[in-house]
């Protein structure tokens, strides 16, 4: 699957024209890249987390000459899948993953306040107060 496949699928499922769907997808990718460039993590509930990792300086080999060559330190983006996404991949997408697919979809739509996911324990503690 490539970007144009994603655009076509989003456009069809959301009832949007291809231009609007592509613009929305571009904005999502842009937001993720912008945060990673600022060395911030991007966490998407039920999907996974994007991070920037530091790669240390190391020694490599020139395959042509066999000579040792220093490879400078660098930064690279990385992605770690959420548990729900990993399970969906292992089980397959619906119908086998029916309940799991719902959990992932709910994770995408989970409300976020102040940049953090709401804490259920904190909410229930507030409800018990007189």
**Succession of helices and strands:** HHEEEEEHHH
Residue-averaged pLDDT: 80
Label the structural class: alpha+beta
Count up the helices. Answer: 5
Helix content: 40-55%
Taking all Cα atoms into account, the compactness measure Rg is: 21 Å
Count of beta strands: 5
Distance between the termini: 54 Å
Shape: elongated
Task: Provide a short characterization of the protein structure.
This protein is an alpha+beta fold and 130 residues long. 48% of the residues lie in helices and 21% in strands. A hairpin with a 6-residue loop joins strand 3 and strand 4 (68-71).
Notes on the structure:
This protein has 130 residues and is an alpha+beta fold. It is 48% helix and 21% strand. The protein is built from 5 helices and 5 strands. It has helices at 3-14, 18-37, 83-91, 98-109, 120-128, and strands at residues 42-44, 48-55, 58-61, 68-71, 74-81. It has a 3-stranded antiparallel beta sheet. Strand 3 (58-61) and strand 4 (68-71) form a beta hairpin. Helix 1 crosses helix 2 (18-37) and helix 3 (83-91) runs antiparallel to helix 4 (98-109). It is elongated. The termini are far apart. The model is unreliable at 109-130 (pLDDT under 50).
Describe how the helices and strands are arranged.
Layout: H1 3-14, H2 18-37, E1 42-44, E2 48-55, E3 58-61, E4 68-71, E5 74-81, H3 83-91, H4 98-109, H5 120-128
Please give a handful of descriptors for the protein shown.
single chain; 130 residues; alpha+beta; three-stranded antiparallel beta sheet; two-stranded antiparallel sheet; 5 helices; 48% helix; disordered C terminus
């Amino acid at each position: 699957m490539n970007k144009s496949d994603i655009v076509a699928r989003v456009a069809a499922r959301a009832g949007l024209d291809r231009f609007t769907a592509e613009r929305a997808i571009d904005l999502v990718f842009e937001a993720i890249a912008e945060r990673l460039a600022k060395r911030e993590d991007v966490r998407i509930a039920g999907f996974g987390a994007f991070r920037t990792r530091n790669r240390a300086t190391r020694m490599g080999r020139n395959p042509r000459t066999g000579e040792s060559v220093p490879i400078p330190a660098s930064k690279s983006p990385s992605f770690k899948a959420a548990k729900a996404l990993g399970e969906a991949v292992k089980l397959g997408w619906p119908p086998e993953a029916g309940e799991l697919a719902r959990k992932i979809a709910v994770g995408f739509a989970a409300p976020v306040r102040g940049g953090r996911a709401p804490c259920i324990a904190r909410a229930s503690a507030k409800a018990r107060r007189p």
